Amino acid sequence: MKAQKLFSYVRRAVSDYNMIKNGDKIAVGISGGKDSLTLLYALNGLRRFYPEKFDIVALTVDLGFEIQNFDTIEQFCKDMNVEYHVIKTEIADIVFENRKETAPCSLCAKMRKGALNETAKKLGCNKIAYAHHCDDMIETMFLSLIYEGRFHCFSPVTYLDRMGLTVIRPLMYTPEADVIGFSRKYELPIAKNPCPVDGHTKREYVKNLVRQLNKENPGCKERFFRALLNGSFTLPENN
Known about the structure:
Layout: H1 3-16, E1 24-29, H2 34-46, E2 54-62, H3 71-79, E3 83-88, H4 91-98, H5 105-122, E4 127-129, H6 134-148, E5 157-160, E6 165-168, H7 176-185, H8 202-216, H9 220-229
Parallel strand pairs: 1-2, 1-4, 2-3, 4-6
Antiparallel strand pairs: 5-6
Helix pairs in contact: 1-2, 2-7, 6-8, 6-9
């Protein structure tokens, strides 16, 4: 996928759901994976021609595994003239050593988001951009159906009233296959996820399930996504 196509996906999402307003300062959560780096590239490109003027700052939550190197990401941000901060935490120790969680993803995600939100507020950001693409949305719907018994997915725009922050998801129209192609074409500096349960989660199971369903029923993944959109996401008043 070329940059022009990525910008088209992102601009459509931003426009359809009124994600960005003039004067916004947006924290972009950078895990080091293909999705978040693609999002950062997209928003940096978008701010050069989008009619609403906005700033971005890149934030990485260091979980404390001590084996993940962020130097290449720092250089990536520097090359784009994007402010970059690494948030040091002890989340890995808390989740895997102290609590010894058998299903660690929920607690880890909650603590990660907490650290990200707090730093974003300190830096004067009013919005946070997450790198969820359309495959993530489909998988979240299936996770909810299978394990919670409800038809549910996160919204493209979510207002966190306790923090006074708005979460936006500008990659919502972008297929994961295109993200993979983009990250390879532009040689994004991916920092491998050091989490010991990476690739062994319920989400990974659902990802494989959706892939198999789409293989047996070509085009069904796009129909799943259309069903989600027809669920009428609503925008919070404070976004």
